[in-house]
Design goal:
Elements (H helix, E strand, L loop, with lengths): L7 H12 L5 E17 L2 E19 L2 E7 L4 H12 L17 E2 L15 H18 L3 E19 L4 E19 L2 E11 L3 H6 L2 H16 L2 E2 L3 E7 L6 H8 L4 H5 L20 E4 L20 E6 L2 E2 L6 H6 L8 E2 L8 E2 L3 E4 L6 H6 L3 E13 L5 E13 L2 E7 L2 E5 H6 L1 E4 L4 E3 L4 E4 L2 E4 L1 E4 L2 E9 L4
Length: 468
């Protein structure tokens, strides 16, 4: 199914060519990828595209410097030239280098997909999308617009490096976004539902498109009745699951190895120190079955693992790729990831979440006299150096005397990630990891990720609202 572009001896030669100017480490990354997108808008399939891309990149490391070049021309001469280009990151004179390369082996995945999504006929995917559209539009006459975006991909890749590693793997995933817009009396509100992950097509078939379409429409319509959000400093209860995007953005990026090696993260040099509430344990795990951030190996060939970043409030470690681990005198945690063969890997999150606590989520709500219940968070921004963030509350409610009273709109959470984590005074026992929809951007590269948390209670967060 996948092209064999180089023989074993040729791969060895390319790695040696890349080291010929004195590099410390060389690597070849090959990728063969298929992608399909389907878009429905205005009751019509507006776009259906399918593409295949393949290419190869060569990386050379010398100290903290990285040389990288890539090609989609698989002639041996061209690939040798790419290796030579990458090698120019090194200024040393040429020297002969020999690489002992193992035989190619298949990486072991901890979960299986029996019926990959690409095996389901396109007509059945389109039928599912149309049924979801009909359901959303028929829910309420105030639904004026429905957009559905479907994406799937399959990837085969192998990695060979000068340390002798030669390993291959493959993966597949899909994602569906259903967006409904409700308009009434000058108000315009949007609802979103989604589905996806590293599942087989039976997962799609088993999830009712009517239910998914209705959930999107219901959210949009309910927000039409929402009242303007209060502004000020309040206790905030953040729901389990997708609420973990706050931890991902406001804390997770600050725990990536490159920022800490360079000393520009708020967590730099704080291993062993208390950095947040003792109720909080934060994990990054690449082995969670079927989640978008889970793989057999990272994009450097390191097996996925579970990494404890913060344990009971104490900083225990960072997320590391090979380069930053070596420069910090540590071992890679399997967090080296890249968007495609056109990029070299960076330390990135996989599935990042707060571990379950002991509190009943309902008790956390009951303990709040006046505050906010953030059922769903939307987009946000964070500054890695300072940890400051702003997050939209996509679906939120007011809590009064321990009860959820009415829905609010126009609310944002504003604060500093490390400070907010110090104010966590309750952690629920309802851990949920959102496997279906997350994507993360860094330095122009986007990779699929998972996020998660149990329901948590923060003693105080600044809420930017429309009602003072």
């Amino acid at each position: 199914m996948y092209p064999e572009i180089l023989e074993h001896w040729q791969i060895k030669k390319v790695l040696e060519k890349a080291l010929a100017r004195g590099g410390e480490f060389s690597e070849i990354y090959f990728e063969y990828k298929t992608e399909m997108t389907i878009n429905l808008s205005e009751n019509k399939i507006k776009n259906l595209s399918y593409g295949i891309s393949s290419g190869l990149g060569v990386r050379v490391i010398s100290g903290a410097k990285t040389g990288y070049a890539y090609t989609d021309d698989f002639s041996f001469e061209k690939i040798l030239n790419v290796a030579e280009v990458a090698s120019y990151v090194v200024d040393n004179s040429s020297r002969p280098t020999s690489v002992n390369l193992e035989e190619k082996r298949k990486a072991k995945q901890n979960f299986s997909i029996e019926k990959p999504i690409y095996l389901l006929e396109v007509d059945k995917k389109i039928e599912w999308i149309k049924r979801a559209n009909d359901s959303a539009r028929s829910y309420d006459g105030r639904i004026k617009q429905v957009d559905i975006n479907y994406y799937e991909s399959t990837r085969y890749f192998w990695i060979a490096n000068s340390e002798g590693i030669f390993v291959e793997s493959d993966d597949s995933l899909f994602r569906i976004f259903i967006t409904s817009v409700a308009i009434d009396d000058g108000l315009r509100e949007m609802g979103i539902s989604y589905l996806g992950g590293r599942f087989g097509y039976d997962y799609l078939v088993e999830h009712s498109p009517e239910k998914m379409g209705m959930e999107s429409a219901m959210q949009a319509v309910s927000k039409l009745k929402a009242k303007p959000a209060p502004a000020g400093n309040f206790p905030v209860v953040i729901k389990s699951g997708w609420g973990g995007v706050l931890v991902h953005e406001a804390v997770g990026h600050g725990l990536e190895g490159d920022f800490n090696r360079k000393g520009i993260s708020v967590y730099s040099g704080k291993i062993g120190q208390k950095v947040c509430s003792e109720l909080v344990t934060i994990i990054d795990d690449g082995t969670i079955p079927n989640s978008r951030g889970s793989l057999a190996i990272d994009d450097e060939g390191t097996p996925m693992m579970k990494t404890v970043l913060i344990e009971n409030g104490m900083l225990r470690g960072y997320m590391l790729d090979k380069l930053n681990a070596k420069l910090m005198g540590l071992e890679s945690t399997g967090n080296g990831r890249r968007e495609s063969y056109k990029y070299y890997p960076l330390p990135r999150m996989r599935n990042t979440y707060i571990e379950a606590g002991k509190d009943d989520p309902n008790d956390l709500i009951k303990s709040v006299k006046y505050g906010i219940y953030a059922k769903s968070l939307g987009g946000g921004q964070v500054d890695i150096v300072s940890g400051n963030f702003v997050f939209e509350i996509n679906e939120g409610y007011l809590i009064e005397n321990g009860e959820i009273t009415y829905q609010i709109r126009g609310a944002n959470l504003i604060g500093n990630g490390p400070e907010i984590m110090k104010r966590v005074i309750g952690v629920g026992n309802d851990l949920e990891i959102e496997k279906r929809t997350g994507s993360c951007g860094k330095d122009g590269q986007y990779v699929p990720v998972g996020v998660g948390q149990p329901t948590i209670l923060v003693s105080e967060i600044t809420v930017g609202g429309t009602q003072v």
